[in-house]
Specification:
The structure holds two protein chains of two kinds.
Chain A (H helix, E strand, L loop, with lengths): L1 H28 L14 H13 L6 H15 L5 H19 L5 H27 L5 H29 L10
Helix pairs in contact in A: 1-2, 1-6, 2-4, 2-6, 3-4, 4-5, 5-6
Chain B lengths: L10 H29 L2 H39 L1 H36 L8 E10 L7 E5 L12 E3 L4 E9 L2 E6 L6 E6 L5 E6 L5 E4 L12 E4 L11 E8 L4 E5 L8 E6 L6 H7 L1
Antiparallel strand pairs in B: 1-2, 1-12, 2-5, 3-4, 3-12, 4-5, 6-7, 6-9, 7-8, 8-11, 9-10, 10-11
Chain lengths: 177, 287
């Protein structure tokens, strides 16, 4: 009985740690900014987190987690409810496809793949938002968000690796980071 | 080698099918949410309020240390500049005394003229203040989260929010003691404006960037770089004559404007409790 409860707690922890780690980073990014570039970094923990956890620890990150994160991103960010949910599900789906086909355990490949995946995801989100508002999203803002997200990938990945190492057992690691 | 027949489905295969069904289901739910949001049913606002109710206090707690640091820095710089500030205030006070006398005369004349013309004032605007606790904008939306405190019960969605320089946005969601403001730079923002000089009308729309676009202006409008844009009050959603932006560029096809507020300097904001519906007494008088 006791061991069952312990098992349940362990599996709950494995399930919750990735989602909570992403949310903590997102909440930190919502502190009032000091410069205009900060605006484009707000969604970075979501994108990097979903890709990272799905590709590195698919057992700990589920579709439901992506859905919940999307819901939070929609409400906090002030975008129409559903836009971020669909976007995160697309990101999740793309990272599933990539992790099945490529060696995502190698950091350089992973980073390269992420830059492609995130580009497609942002374009998809921009199309969806533009259709909703019947107005085009400025491309410069989109490009800025894409470049900053790619640039921050190593830093964020390090944080997530640390979280994984600290709170949920890590079996395989990047070959080189 | 003969292949072995598999009588039962492998567990992995079943799980994969289930996962695919789940993904399709979640996609459908998300797309339905977008559609329902577009139709603007009350359900969406309920869900948003619920999630906002949970997350806004967490955000507030997280931003408290940074608020403390910025307060300390501000106080320290105030103490350093106290002598210059005192001199400046003395000078300003002298100028204000002179202005006060002339304003009294204008006010008396104004009352007299209003009486002669049977002029009805716009409804008295009450003001509430709130503290900015988080900025949640990104390339797809521009918003702020504010802490309303005890005045939360007076605040309704749609009320105008102003900073010290002018309009910054409108209340989008109120939940608990917190509210989300949709900024004027948000792609969803469309505000009827009028130029302070030539009195030409237009609609100022957000683009999710630092620039705003002015559309639906008259063909022969006299618009110049630096012209001040103020709210026109048309539609009744916002009070008239609140400064909002300055014209930055005027081309043949596009007119862009720059908001008056600086997002990085917003700490305290004012909420204007502007209700266009006239009071019962005014309605009686009009009848």
């Amino acid at each position: 009985m006791k061991s069952d409860f312990k098992n349940f707690l362990t599996s709950a922890k494995v399930f919750l740690v990735p989602t909570i780690s992403i949310l903590v980073l997102v909440i930190l990014s919502y502190i009032p900014r000091t410069n205009d570039y900060w605006n484009f970094l707000r969604q970075t923990p979501f994108y990097i987190g979903i890709y990272f956890w799905q590709s590195q620890r698919p057992d700990a990150f589920h579709l439901i987690s992506a859905f919940i994160l999307g819901l939070f991103a929609d409400v906090l960010g002030g975008v129409p409810l559903g836009i971020n949910i669909v976007t995160f599900l697309v990101l999740y789906m793309l990272s599933v496809q990539c992790s099945e086909r490529f060696n995502v355990k190698r950091f350089s490949y992973s980073w390269l793949l992420f830059s492609g995946i995130i580009f497609l995801t942002l374009i998809f989100k921009a199309i969806l938002t533009s259709i909703f508002y019947r107005q085009l999203i400025p491309l410069t803002a989109l490009m800025m968000e894409w470049l900053l997200t790619i640039a921050l990938f190593p830093l964020m990945a390090r944080i997530f690796i640390w979280v994984e190492k600290q709170y949920i057992h890590l079996e395989e690691r990047y070959e080189k980071i | 080698m003969q292949r072995q027949k598999v009588l039962f489905l492998k567990e992995n295969y079943v799980l994969r099918i289930l996962k695919n069904f789940m993904m399709a289901g979640l996609f459908i739910i998300a797309l339905l949410l977008i559609l329902v949001h577009k139709v603007d049913l009350g359900v969406i606002s309920g869900i948003s309020k619920g999630i906002f109710y949970i997350t806004a206090p967490v955000l507030h707690v997280v931003t408290l240390p940074s608020e403390g640091l910025s307060y300390g820095y501000k106080k320290a710089s105030e103490i350093m500049n106290v002598y210059e500030e005192n001199e400046r205030l003395k000078q300003e006070n002298e100028e204000l005394y002179l202005l006060k006398d002339s304003l009294r005369a204008v006010e008396a004349e104004n009352i007299l003229l209003k009486d002669v013309l049977h002029y009805y004032d716009i409804p008295k605007i009450k003001i509430r203040t709130a503290r900015v606790i988080a900025e949640t904008g990104n390339a797809f939306a521009n918003a702020l989260i504010i802490y309303l405190g005890d005045s939360a019960s007076d605040i309704k969605p749609g009320y105008a929010v102003v900073g010290k320089d002018g309009l910054i946005g409108r209340i989008d969601i109120v939940s608990g003691k917190y509210a989300r403001i949709s900024l004027i730079t948000d792609i969803n923002s469309k505000i009827p404006v009028i130029t302070a000089q030539s009195r030409d009308r237009g609609i100022l729309i957000g683009t999710n960037s630092a620039e705003l676009k002015l559309i639906f202006t008259p063909l022969l409008a006299e618009l110049h770089k630096g012209d001040l844009l103020v709210t026109s009050g048309i539609g009744g959603g916002l009070p008239p004559d609140i400064p909002i932006a300055r014209i930055k560029r005027t081309n043949t096809d596009t007119i862009t404007a720059e908001p008056l507020y600086n997002p990085s300097k917003l700490e305290i904001v004012k909420i204007l409790l502007y209700d266009i519906a006239p009071s019962k007494e005014i309605l009686k008088e009009l009848e």
